[in-house]
Amino acid sequence: MVKFGYTILYVEDVEKSLSFYENAFGFSRKFITPDHDYGELITGETTLSFASKNLASQNLKEGFVQSNLEGKPFGIEIGFITDEVGELVQKATSLGAILVVEPTKKPWGQVVAYVRDLDGFLIEICTEMK
C-alpha cells in the first residue's frame, strides 16, 4: 500500500512560512527543527511541510527551480477546502498573499479562488466538490 504522506515546499524562511500558514489558514504547527530549516503543519491527513532552500540544496546537489513572486507560478497548486472562500482569501491577502483570481463560481457549483503565498506558491481556495 502507498499513502500520500506530505508535500514539502522549499522556502526562504521556514519560520515565516509556518507562521503565515498558521495565521492565514488556521493550521497548527506539528514540528520545527532546532535549526528552523524544516517544519511541518497539521492540515488533515496529509502534512504540509516546509524546508529551507539551503536544506533543499544540500539534498538536491544538482539544484532545483526556486519559486518566487517575480515569475509565473509553477504548474502545480495546493488546494484548501472551506465553506468561506471569500473570507479566507481576504484573510490570506491581508497577511501577505497575492490575489491571482477572485472567488468565482464554476458551472458545476464549486467556488474557486487563487492566491500566491509569500514564496510564490499557488494556492487554490475552494468549496468542496459535491
Could you describe the 3D structure shown?
This protein is α/β, with parallel strands linked by helices and 130 residues long. The chain is built from 3 helices and 8 strands, in the order E-H-E-E-E-H-E-H-E-E-E. It has helices spanning 14-25, 53-59, 85-94, and strands spanning 6-11, 28-32, 38-42, 47-52, 78-81, 98-105, 111-116, 122-126. The strands form 2 sheets. It has a 4-stranded mixed beta sheet with strand order 1-4-3-2. Strands 5-8-7-6 form a 4-stranded mixed beta sheet, covered by helices on one side. Strand 3 and strand 4 (47-52) form a beta hairpin. Helix 1 packs antiparallel against helix 3 (85-94). The longest helix is centred in the first third of the chain and has 12 residues, at 14-25. The mean pLDDT is 96.
Structural class, by secondary structure, is alpha/beta
* Biggest sheet, spatial arrangement of strands: 1-4-3-2
> How many separate helices?
3
SSE pattern: EHEEEHEHEEE
How helical, in percent, are the residues? 10-25%
Number of strands: 8
Q: What's the story with the biggest beta sheet?
A: 4 strands, mixed
Radius of gyration: 15 Å
The average pLDDT value, as a whole number, equals 96
The portion of residues forming beta strands comes to 25-35%
**Global shape:** globular
Q: How far apart lie the N and C ends?
A: 27 Å
Stretches where pLDDT falls below 50 for ≥5 residues? none
